Amino acid sequence: MNNPLSHFVILLITTLVLTGGGASHANAQGKASDSAATDEVKVLVNNDKVIVTEERLRLGAQSASKARPYRVVRALKGGSIQRIFPDGKKATTQWKTGEVKVFEATEPYAIRNVGSTEVVFYIVSPK
Prior knowledge:
Layout: H1 4-35, E1 40-46, E2 50-57, E3 66-68, E4 71-77, E5 79-84, E6 90-95, E7 100-103, E8 106-113, E9 119-126
């Protein structure tokens, strides 16, 4: 075991084992951050008259592109939101905590948190 070839083989095996473990760890971290890159929507009320949701966007999180009904939105935690339209156009808006806005029904678009803090919306949509 004192020849240079055996030292090289041991070093090579050790490197492969350590590199493989590091790659698995990096992949696990990548998967965790990928799942955190989407918005979280919690339905609070869903009856024959309204649907009430809470939408949470962590840093960098993005919602799916979807048509949105008439709605009243209150920012429980404000921040910078970017609307991303199917044609690639983008529009950024600032929300202050506690701010309330009313929106008409819209064509599909995604929203992305482009600010430095988590953003949380309370949304009420009549049916």
